[in-house]
C-alpha cells in the first residue's frame, strides 16, 4: 500500500523532448545601450567585428553552438556615428569597468555552471571585448522583466544576454548591429499530442516573463485559443515544469531551448 501511494505521488517526469517544426517568430539578438551611449556601442561593435575577422568570434561560436553563428553582414540598426559631445566611451575607460546586465539563467548565452560561475556564449564575447578595451568586465545579474529600468538608472552599462531586438526596445535603447539569429520555438514532450501551433488550443503553455516569447505568441492567431499562459522568472524553471507535466508546452528562444534539451539528454 505504501509503495502504491508513493508511486501515485511521484510526478510523471518526461525524459525526451521535441521541437515543433511550427514556430512563432524569427528574431535577431542585439546588445542594448542607453540611447545616449552611441560611442560606447560603436566601440563594442568595432571589437566584435575585429574578433570575427581574426577568428576569435568563430572559435567562441564553435565552442557553444558547433557552428559559426555571427551575422557578419548585418547592417546598422541605428546611428553608425557618435554625435559630437558623446563621452560614453570615455566614461567607461576612465571608470575602468564595463558593467553588463544579464539574466544568469539563460543557457547557453549566460548562466550559472556547476561551480556557480556565470558562463556562456555572450559571456565569452563580453570578456574578450572588455579585454580589448582594456577594462574590467563586471557581470551584473538583473531582473529580466525590469531590464530597461536597470539600464536607464545607470546600474549597468549595457544589456548583453540573448536579447531580441524589437521595435519597443529600439525606442528604449541604442542597438548597433544584430549579431545572432534566433526563433521562438515550441518544445513539447516526445509523446505529446501537440504537433503544430494549432494544437495549443486549450493547452497550458509556459514562457519567460519579460521575454519576446509572449509578444510572439500574442501576434499569432492561436493566442486567443490557448488555455492558459504561465509566465516564469526564467526559462530553466519553465523547462523543469514541462518535464514534470505542469505545463503542456514551452515557448522559448531556439538557442536556449535546444541547448536545454541537449543538456537534459546528457543527464
What would you note in describing this structure?
- There is one protein chain.
- The strands form two sheets. Strands 1, 2, 3, 7, 8, 9, 10, 11 and 12 form a nine-stranded mixed sheet that branches. The chain has a three-stranded antiparallel sheet with strand order 4-5-6.
- Strand 5 and strand 6 form a beta hairpin.
- With 267 residues, it is of the alpha/beta class.
- Helix 2 crosses helix 4 (88-95) and helix 2 crosses helix 5 (121-133).
- The protein has two domains: 13-25 and 183-266, Periplasmic binding protein-like II (D-Maltodextrin-Binding Protein, domain 2, 3-Layer(aba) Sandwich), CATH 3.40.190; 27-181, D-Maltodextrin-Binding Protein, domain 2 (3-Layer(aba) Sandwich), CATH 3.40.190.
- The radius of gyration is 20 Å and the shape is globular.
- The protein starts with a helix and ends with a helix.
- The longest helix is centred in the N-terminal third of the chain and has 16 residues, at 38-53.
- The protein has ten helices and twelve strands.
Amino acid at each position: 500500500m505504501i509503495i502504491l501511494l508513493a508511486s501515485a505521488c511521484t510526478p510523471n517526469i518526461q525524459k525526451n523532448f521535441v521541437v515543433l517544426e511550427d514556430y512563432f517568430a524569427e528574431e535577431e539578438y542585439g546588445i542594448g545601450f542607453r540611447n545616449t551611449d552611441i560611442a560606447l556601442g560603436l566601440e563594442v561593435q568595432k571589437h566584435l567585428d575585429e574578433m570575427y575577422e581574426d577568428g576569435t568570434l568563430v572559435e567562441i561560436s564553435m565552442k557553444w553552438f558547433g557552428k559559426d553563428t555571427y551575422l557578419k553582414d548585418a547592417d546598422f540598426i541605428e546611428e553608425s556615428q557618435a554625435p559630437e559631445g558623446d563621452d560614453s566611451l570615455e566614461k567607461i575607460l576612465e571608470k575602468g569597468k564595463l558593467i553588463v546586465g544579464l539574466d544568469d539563467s539563460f543557457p547557453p548565452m549566460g548562466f550559472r555552471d556547476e561551480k556557480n560561475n556565470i558562463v556562456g556564449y555572450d559571456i565569452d564575447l563580453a570578456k574578450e571585448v572588455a579585454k580589448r578595451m582594456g577594462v574590467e568586465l563586471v557581470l551584473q545579474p538583473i531582473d529580466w522583466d525590469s531590464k530597461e529600468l536597470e539600464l536607464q538608472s545607470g546600474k549597468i552599462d549595457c544589456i548583453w544576454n540573448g536579447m531580441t531586438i524589437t521595435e519597443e526596445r529600439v525606442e528604449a535603447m541604442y542597438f548597433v548591429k544584430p549579431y545572432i539569429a534566433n526563433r521562438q520555438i515550441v518544445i513539447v514532450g516526445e509523446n505529446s499530442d501537440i504537433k503544430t501551433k494549432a494544437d495549443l488550443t486549450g493547452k497550458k503553455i509556459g514562457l519567460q516573463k519579460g521575454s519576446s516569447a509572449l509578444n510572439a505568441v500574442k501576434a499569432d492567431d492561436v493566442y486567443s485559443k490557448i488555455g492558459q499562459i504561465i509566465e516564469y522568472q526564467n526559462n530553466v524553471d519553465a523547462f523543469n515544469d514541462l518535464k514534470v507535466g505542469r505545463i503542456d508546452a514551452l515557448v522559448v528562444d531556439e538557442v536556449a531551448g535546444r541547448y536545454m534539451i541537449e543538456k537534459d539528454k546528457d543527464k
